Amino acid sequence: MKNKKIIAAPSILSSDFSRIREELQLIQSSGAEWVHLDVMDGCFVPNITFGPKFIKDIRSCSNLFFDTHLMVDNPEKYISDFADAGSDAITIHYEAAVHLHRAVQHIHETGKLAGVSVVPSTPVELLEDLLSELDIVLVMTVNPGFGGQSLIPFCIEKVRKLKAMCQRINPDCRIAVDGGVNTSTIIPLKEAGIDIAVAGSAFFSAASPKAFISEICRA
Ligand code: DX5
Ligand code: ZN
Asked: Which CATH number does the domain housing residue 74 bear?
């Protein structure tokens, strides 16, 4: 197992949006440094959440690192909007952008960290040529669209393969996982080599969010 601390990124998808200021404060007081912002368009995924206006508004009440996950078709059209709204990292989907290299360059031009995500059925090997230019690869461990699903076990093997690719091509690239992360599934994910763990329902249903974060982050 790695002896490196994991970055925890609670996802507000499972929070109460009517109390978003308090929910962001809860994330901050839990010890997490990142917040994961799931943007869904009802096309790329069968659910709709929020857009750049919402992110811009909550930017004024939080100093957390804003980790924006765009589950939208044609994400290249919205990169500037989400950068201007105050995102610190922008992750787009391999499956949603034909000209992925150009889109990653665009994210870097805005000064933000650039991530690419793959859904469970997309092999991580398809990212090999682009890997040297990525800051984050987000391995979806559920089919995206909803919180509260169970982790799909074969995705852990994808993390192992990606870890080996990163060691060979880009050791600075961070590996993130998203979907079904809890205090049990985090154990094999850490062994497989993750750097960032996104957690929605497990964080917001934890009896002690602080204890949950320290367990997720513990090396
Ligand atoms: C799912 C989203 C996730 C979601 C994870 O499509 O990308 O970030 O919030 O939720 P949990 O942790 O409940 O599986
Ligand atoms: Zn997400």
From this structure: 3.20.20.70
